[in-house]
Amino acid sequence: IVGGAKVSDKIELIENFLNLATHILIGGAMAYTFFRAKKMGTGKSLVEADKIDLAAELLTRAAAKGVALELPVDHVVATGLDASESQIVAIDRTPDGLMGLDIGPETVKHYSEILARARTIVWNGPMGVFQNPMFAKGTFGIARAVPESKAFSIIGGADSAAAVAQCGMESKITHISTGGGASLEFLSGQKLPGVEA
């Protein structure tokens, strides 16, 4: 499960997991760069314009390797981070003036069904701007689905760890690493000096 704002932060992680995973579940703002790669409208959602071609390449490579690179099917949209109102819409019905700030309930359900069959789960990065309660249901939904799956589970990164803690699910996760940067490097296939020594 890969979330967070930028594809650029997770490129090496995704590339490494194309050789390891059966499914890669994408959430957070980074999903919109993939949607743009698929020529879909994304409203005002955060998109890394210079990474659209790379996202398209990752989608192609995932398909060639038989890895299911899953993207949200619905999301919570609003005018901005400080909005007082939001709505849930299908991804292909994103209004031009609104931005996606969390995965929607259908995506949580779909991802949870995949996680229920998993034997090993690695999660790095939130599914939305969960610091705002209005955009937290997606991340919290995944935080509950991971321990319910009975899989060996590893969570890396402060945001994902915080979400699990807020749901009271910490004790049900096999391992939680608060070292987001270090765990990202390790999961990306890089060597860590301390571990090497």
Protein topology:
Elements lengths: L10 H7 L5 E3 L4 H8 L14 H14 L2 E3 L3 E5 L8 E4 L8 E5 L1 H12 L3 E5 L12 H12 L3 E5 L1 H9 L8 E3 L2 H8 L5 H4 L1
Parallel strand pairs: 1-2, 6-7, 7-8
Antiparallel strand pairs: 3-4, 3-5
From the N-terminal CA to the C-terminal CA, the straight-line distance is 29 Å
Sequence of secondary-structure elements: HEHHEEEEHEHEHEHH
> How are the strands of the biggest sheet laid out side by side?
4-3-5
Largest sheet: 3 strands, antiparallel
Molecular structure report:
The protein has eight helices and eight strands, in the order H-E-H-H-E-E-E-E-H-E-H-E-H-E-H-H. It has 197 residues and is α/β, with parallel strands linked by helices. Helix 4 runs parallel beside helix 5. The model has no long low-confidence stretch (mean pLDDT 93). Helix 5 links the parallel strand 6 and strand 7. The strands form three sheets. A three-stranded antiparallel β-sheet has the order 4-3-5. It has a three-stranded parallel β-sheet with strand order 6-7-8. The radius of gyration is 16 Å and the shape is globular.
Short key terms for the protein model shown above:
single chain, 197 residues, alpha/beta, 3-stranded antiparallel sheet, 8 strands
